[in-house]
Design brief:
Helix content: 40-55%
Strand content: 5-15%
CATH superfamily: P-loop containing nucleotide triphosphate hydrolases
Distance between the termini: 10 Å
Shape: globular
CATH class: Alpha Beta
Largest sheet: 5 strands, parallel
Order of helices and strands: EHEHHHEHEHHEHEE
Oligomer: single chain
Number of domains: 1
């Protein structure tokens, strides 16, 4: 299992989709799993039930997803806030931190109305606060850190695959067509 962690907008869903396709694995986006389960958007659930209830549900979903042997998991930006999530992610798979700086994220997200934690008067400051709070948690959870910066999605996927290969966590299939988790 390969899990992607990082701030909202760091590319976890997009990179996860491409990585799963490249490795011929299933992709599970924890936020999408949660939305299917609750029958509404995370933003609506946040407003109605509060962050604590959402984090409880998120912890259940992370626990379930991290037991999958061969999958790519794209996590929600706050999934690392709970110690049990950090531990499960780190112990049950390989975790890649897609590290993005607040200013870069602000450029990507400034018009996004779907992210509940960014619906504030000063979203850039909110991203700076989230980065200050969560960067140490992402680093604690991750086996690998990849700076998102300006690379294309394909370049980021190649960097992740290379890290996993260098760690000896992949093996070539008999026909040599693609590399799969070993």
């Amino acid at each position: 299992m390969i899990a992607l962690v990082g701030l909202p907008g760091s590319g976890k869903s997009t990179v996860g989709r491409h990585l799963a396709r490249r490795l011929s694995l299933s992709l599970f986006d924890s936020d999408h799993v949660i939305e299917r389960r609750i029958g509404c958007s995370i933003r609506e659930y946040f407003e109605r039930e509060g962050e604590q209830r959402f984090r409880d549900l998120e912890a259940e979903v992370i626990d379930e997803l991290t037991t999958l042997p061969s999958a790519v998991i794209s996590t929600g930006g706050g999934s690392v806030l709970r110690p049990e999530n950090r531990q499960r992610l780190h112990e049950r798979g390989q975790v890649v931190y897609l590290r993005s700086h607040p200013e870069e994220l602000y450029r990507r997200l400034r018009h996004d109305q779907k992210r509940p934690l960014l619906q504030v008067a000063d979203p850039l400051q909110r991203l700076r606060d989230l980065y200050a709070e969560r960067d140490p948690l992402y680093r604690e959870t991750a086996h690998y850190t990849i700076e998102t910066g300006r690379p294309s999605v394909n370049t980021l996927v190649n960097m992740i695959v290379m890290q996993v290969e260098l760690a000896g966590l992949t093996q070539p299939p008999a026909d040599g067509a693609q590399w799969l988790p070993g």
